[in-house]
Amino acid sequence: MSLRIQNLNKAFNGQPALRHIDLTVGPADFVCLLGPSGCGKTTLLRIVAGLLDADSGHITLDGRDLAAIPARARGFGLVFQSYSLFTHMTVAENIGYGLRIRKTPADQVQRRIAELLQVVRLPGFAERYPDQLSGGQQQRVAIARALAVDPALLLLDEPLSALDARVRAELRHELREVQQRLRIPTLMVTHDQEEAMSMADTIVCMNDGRIEQAGSPRALYLQPQTRFVADFMGHSNLLDAEAARLLLPSQAPAPQAQPGLALCVRPEQLRLEPARDAAGRVLAVSFLGSIQRIRIEWRGRTLLAQTTGGLALHAGDRVHVQLDDTAAPAWVPAPSTGVPDRAGAGA
Ligand code: ATP
């Protein structure tokens, strides 16, 4: 199964919410729509689900136009942030609901429920009601319910964001594992960059109704094509050509001046060496255990570096700042004023 979205547009009261969206979800692909609040992620997912009409554009599933197919007949599995389980039904009844309304024979429904309880690691929970489950368990049931009908496409809208950090991390892993095992094409909305990076084959980074960049997590992180992507995909130091030249190790060729572009250097691509009269001065250290983030004042700029937790640094220490030999930072369009940095934000 392959979903294709072509030149999709949607406005609410004259305000564009989606502009010229082109996107493909291939068979077995896990695609994350990632972006800040209001960028249009949920609108796009709802249009694909058939819960909302686009103003223009086409959506096809294996070449079949979805426009004329109502939401219920699309055969998609949906999971939302709020668990949206039927509270008066048991876990088993919730999971079997879609099969029962399709008039699936009772013994097959029972078999499928038992199978899915194994898949989402809830054997023994069949007779419980939703209010007897934790948030994570409820979301597992919601996932099982979405999978029960062998969906042609799985649509997930922030399915993990109501859960606490630990359960969320666990379920990320489980959901991805199930998706890969069952090879279901999946489109998931999230505003959490780490979640998208850890789960997706392809991240579609959206901003103001547009796709800024689509690609693998690695490509978006290491080769951002816009400043927005550089900023949204983790911390970045955006440096002018002069700073870039100063930072590169001496044996490396000097970078070409790139008018209108800035070098996107990730914090972990900076190498720090304590030295008494070095140009860098440590402003603050956030110790996070295995790593630490260090804010540095360096030649009139503020940089954010990240090192292993083992390097003992304190505010006021002087450090040499260099670009790591293995780093291949990307050039992105520069901001309109001065030397950019939002480095201070994360330290
Ligand atoms: P969030 O992460 O906060 O859920 P989102 O990226 O999913 O945000 P959408 O819910 O798709 O964003 O909204 C995109 C834009 O469309 C927003 O400006 C929103 O206010 C607007 N919008 C969404 N639904 C409607 C509606 N039913 N009526 C009017 N405007 C809407």
Task: Output the keywords.
347 residues; alpha+beta; Rossmann fold; OB fold (Dihydrolipoamide Acetyltransferase, E2P); 2 domains; five-stranded antiparallel beta sheet; 9 helices; 18 strands; 26% helix; binds adenosine-5'-triphosphate
Description:
There is one protein chain. The two termini are 44 Å apart. The chain has two domains: 3-222, Rossmann fold (3-Layer(aba) Sandwich), CATH 3.40.50.300; 259-344, OB fold (Dihydrolipoamide Acetyltransferase, E2P) (Beta Barrel). The protein has helices at residues 41-49, 91-101, 106-119, 135-147, 165-182, 193-199, 217-222, 227-232, 241-247; strands at residues 3-12, 15-25, 30-34, 56-61, 64-65, 76-79, 153-157, 186-190, 202-207, 210-215, 237-239, 261-265, 270-274, 280-287, 291-298, 301-308, 318-323, 330-333. A six-stranded mixed β-sheet has the order 6-7-8-3-9-10, sandwiched between helices. A five-stranded antiparallel β-sheet has the order 13-17-14-15-16, with no helix packed on it. Helix 2 packs across helix 3, helix 2 runs parallel beside helix 4 (135-147) and helix 3 (106-119) crosses helix 4. With 347 residues, it is of the alpha+beta class. Adenosine-5'-triphosphate (ATP) is lined by residues 12, 17, 35, 37-43, 191. The site of adenosine-5'-triphosphate (ATP) has 11 residues, from helix 1.
